[in-house]
From TrEMBL:
Residues 349-379 are annotated as: Disordered. The keyword NAD does not apply. It comes from Nostoc punctiforme (strain ATCC 29133 / PCC 73102). Residues 54-214 form the ORC1/DEAH AAA+ ATPase domain. This is Conserved hypothetical ATP-binding protein. Keywords: ATP-binding, Nucleotide-binding, Plasmid. SUPFAM superfamilies: P-loop containing nucleoside triphosphate hydrolases. One of its GO terms (molecular function) is ATP hydrolysis activity. The lineage of its organism: Bacteria, Bacillati, Cyanobacteriota, Cyanophyceae, Nostocales. It comes from the Bacteria. The keyword Metal-binding does not apply.
């Protein structure tokens, strides 16, 4: 009698086309320790806001910034669903992707227009997804009335939309593009501009980007008190706890790979760790690429050959490693600078810093171990 292997994915998925099976695997999100710590910090500050209105979330390519953003948006929509049902005009969270400057000049008009468009688009999707009854929304014409007007008019329309919609959080992806301009004075103006919008609207602004966000000046006291940095650090090869967490992530991924026989990826953990630079996002992309190779061969499981064929090029991995090393070094140096400055100004000794999170570029969050699970939300 043949023993049928039990899978963590629906058995009928094996009968589906390869494209559908691949999409299923891409939809899997692993709430690992790094992701959970950052997500908990953001949720607490959005649901119970204090003085922190601006968050800078940064890290190397593939570390999980997009997954964090999408997971945050899903959880906020779920958290505020009862309120959204009662008030069809309300929006829990909205967001845009920042566009690079043209010839070194940032377009505020384009930013305001995209922000207004995102508020409308999110509202439409929310009504469809959750069948919220359509009601009269007085400010739907804001964009049309202000679209051809100047930047101040667009900004007022945007601020009014934030307040009317009662937006709890506004996310900006690729946020380093907001600060791609010469001179510290101009970048300080940009930070003051973001802080002003967040302050006037009461909406928490979360900027997701690369280590270039470290260029953002926070020497200004008011900005420092109202901003918080979240560093999404890759798992470290010299940290036993990080290795254990990464192996748990590998185990969870392998249980959800839609193949007849569950692959034994744990035995390749050193290879997977090195080739993904300790980044869960890169690991998942790598496994997805390898899965496509396995499907092309009609393989029953995923093996080392598929992993090698699906691996990223050495030049790309080396570039990401260099970015991670330089970014982390800069983060540490800047943390030390602000700690010394704070200590000097206040005459106190600063506590040991944490590599993931710092308040106003000062302080710490005590790490803790979290369970690893699976959620089939956006990746």
């Amino acid at each position: 009698m043949v023993k049928i292997q039990s899978h963590s994915f629906p058995e009928e998925l094996l009968l589906q086309p390869n494209e559908i099976k691949t999409d299923y695997f891409k939809s899997i999100t692993i709430p690992h320790q790094r992701l959970k710590q950052a997500l908990d910090t953001l949720l607490i500050n959005i649901l119970e806001p204090a003085d922190t209105l601006v968050f800078l979330v940064f890290g190397v390519t593939g570390v999980g910034k997009t997954t964090l953003r999408l997971r945050l948006e899903n959880l906020l929509n779920y958290e505020f669903l009862p309120s959204l049902r009662q008030n069809p005009g309300q929006i829990a969270v909205a967001g845009i992707e920042a566009i690079p400057t043209e010839q070194g000049k940032f377009s505020y008009k384009d930013y305001y227009t995209r922000a207004l468009e995102s508020l409308q688009e999110v509202l439409i999707e929310y009504k469809i997804d959750y069948e919220i009854p359509h009601g009269e929304v007085k400010d739907l014409g804001l964009l049309n009335r202000a679209y051809r007007q100047d930047s101040p008019a667009l900004r007022r329309a945007m601020e009014k939309a934030f307040r009317y919609r009662q937006v709890k959080a506004f996310t900006v992806d690729e946020a380093q593009h907001l600060f791609m301009m010469a001179g510290g004075h101009q970048m300080l103006q940009q930070m003051n501009w973001i802080k002003s919008i967040a302050n006037l609207t009461g909406t928490v602004h979360i900027l997701f980007g690369t280590y270039e966000l470290l260029n953002c000046p926070t020497l200004n006291g008011q900005i420092g008190r109202r901003s918080e940095d979240i560093h999404l650090l890759p798992y470290q090869a010299d940290n036993p706890e990080d290795i254990a967490e990464f192996i748990r992530v590998i185990r969870t991924f392998q249980r959800h790979i839609p193949l007849v026989q569950e692959p034994k990826l744990e035995q390749h953990y050193e290879y997977l760790f090195s080739g993904s630079v300790g980044c869960v996002g890169l690991l998942k992309n790598w496994l997805t690429r390898s899965l496509r190779v396995a499907y092309s061969e009609e393989a029953r499981t995923l093996n080392s050959k598929h992993l090698k064929l699906g691996a990223f090029s050495a030049s790309r991995i080396n570039k990401i490693k260099e970015e991670a090393q330089q970014g982390f070094k800069r983060f540490q140096e800047e943390s030390s600078f602000f700690e010394r400055q704070y200590s000097t100004e206040h005459g106190i000794k600063m506590p040991a810093k944490n590599s993931l999170l710092k308040k106003g570029r000062v302080g710490q969050r005590k790490p803790k171990r979290d369970d690893v699970g699976v959620n089939s939300d956006d990746d």
